[in-house]
Prior knowledge:
Blueprint: E1 2-3, E2 7-8, H1 9-23, H2 35-45, H3 50-63, H4 67-72, H5 75-82, H6 89-105, H7 113-116, H8 124-135, H9 144-154, H10 163-176, H11 182-195, H12 214-218, E3 234-242, E4 244-245, E5 248-253, E6 264-265, E7 268-271, H13 277-289, E8 292-295, E9 301-305, E10 309-321, E11 332-336, H14 338-343, H15 348-355
Parallel strand pairs: 3-10
Antiparallel strand pairs: 1-2, 3-7, 4-5, 5-6, 5-11, 8-10, 9-10
Helix pairs in contact: 1-11, 2-3, 2-8, 8-11, 9-11
Amino acid sequence: MSYNGVVKTETFRKRLLGWYRENRRALPWRETRDPYRIWVSEAMLQQTQVATVIPYYQRFLQRFPTVNALARAPVTDVLDQWSGLGYYSRAKNLHAGAREVVRRYGGKLPDQAETLQELPGIGRYTAGAIASIAFDRPAPLVDGNVIRVLSRCFGIREDPRAGAVQKKLWKIAGALVPEKNPGDFNQALMELGATVCLPRQPACGSCPLTGGCVARQKGWQERIPPPRPEVPKKKLLYLGALLEKEGALLLGRRPITGLLPGLWELPGGEVPAGAPEPEELARLVRERTGLRVIPSAAGKTAVQILSHRRIELRSFPCRWSGRLRAPRWYTDLRWFPPPALAAAALTAGIRKLLHE
């Protein structure tokens, strides 16, 4: 196999691995071959920047150092540790997968990519990463960075989200991954895409593959891959009640299914735009906590952006009466004094309301 009909596969590998040895970043998950730790890093790195992930990765492994420790923990504890990292289905899948590893494999991850894909939340990419990096299996992987590198090198101009193009990219990745040091090779591909073969203004002068890159030769770097079409974000309005007792603030824990699972928020909920806000907030608080509230004028407003949603949050200081009852929608209701509030796993929007 060659790329651009000139450079042979072995030369491609040699150039890429030589560059990687000289330029690889020192990252904590590169200091281990523990498949559990590699799994955690890959789950966290999906759609999240490396600099953001590092402190979460370190704290998460302090709290859950082994797959058995993760499997034993309540899912709410896992979500608390994940708070602020976003895409919370990753945390729930990681927890469910850990329980499956303990139940089916005695706490040891399988070493084959095909078997790994049978676990919750482990797709073809993550399976390839774990199998190649932790177990030295010549399993390919294709993520956003790899798509960009391969599309440019091989001059693939079609939309990489199309099924036929995905199949082509996986075939190329499978042909390129070597029997020896497949983990280093896969990490080198990802590293090149993350640090050199950038979406905009790629540093082609620093790239070890420039000589055979079709996009570089034809000036297509900025057009390959084609940009993802913009998807309009759904707009939501959330109202939250500020309820205080002896300096403590009442929070409710969201259900562990659905949007922002298991995180703490001000009692309230989503309401339609244009609805009478104080009345709607009073109704929601009464239904979800049992308390009767009289909202005053709206306080702070914050905005939280999710992948497909834009949430506008509005807080209302409230006078309240009555007694808390067993939560009907929230999974827990709790009064948080200021020290506990600072460490609570709040939704990002509620944290903005309270701390900005």
